[in-house]
Amino acid sequence: MSVLPATFFRISASLAVAGIGALMIVSGASAQATSSKMKGLELSNDKPIQIESDKLEIKDPESKAIFTGNVKVVQGTTTLQAGSMTVFYKSGAGSVSSGDADIERIEVSQRVFLSSGTQQATADSGEFNMTKQTFVLKGEKVVLSEGKNVFVGCQLNVQMNTGEAQLEACGGRVQIQLDPKSQKKN
Predict the structure, then answer these.
(1) Could you give the domains of the chain?
(2) Fewer CB within 10 Å: C terminus or N terminus of the chain?
(3) pLDDT higher for 56 or 36?
(4) pLDDT tens digits along 131-148
(5) With b meaning 16 or more CB within 10 Å and e meaning fewer, what string describes 19-58?
């Protein structure tokens, strides 16, 4: 086990931190769950990934790396921030410290913020599953926004390879606020 008090840790391996993509206008604001297509963030494997945190603990025998305290991940125009992030990688398939880890999944918690361009999402926690190509953001209030368009629920499920997305209300109602000026003119 290695404990590194890292304020900056750079990995140039492929870490597909998938994101919220372009939010499309959806109808049915009173529905309990809203489905739509979302464009996944276009992250390329050739762009370096920068990770900053107050502390990094690498547990190679458990095939995981734990970043804690003011975690910030940046690749291109995409930024992910959280209080903590645990990266799980395949055993025997490289390591995080060498930059060649084969990432299975990433768990984030403690005020998750995801941003790319004009799109943003906030949640209490999230999981990015690289094997299943899914990501889930959860919280008492999961908020997605693009400009003045705002979507609120408690859980966002996204299939990264297809862009299919579902926003759940968890017993309440999905809330949507749309800016009429954002609609495409035909």
Answers:
(1) 2-182 (2.60.450.10)
(2) C
(3) 56
(4) 899 999 999 999 999 888
(5) bbbebeebeeeeeeebebebebbebeeeeebebbbebbbb
Pairing mode, strands 55-59 and 103-116: unpaired
Does the structure show a pLDDT above 90 at 52?
Answer: yes
Which pLDDT does position 91 carry in this prediction? Answer: 80
Q: Any idea which residue has 């930024």 for tokens?
A: 79
Q: What CA–CA distance (Å, rounded) separates 72 from 154?
A: 23
Tokens read off for 121: 């999402």
Please state, in angstroms and as integers, the Cα–Cα distance from residue 115 to each residue in 28, 112, 131, 156, following that order: 25, 10, 23, 15
With tokens 């060649």, the residue in question is 100
- Confidence (pTM): 0.73
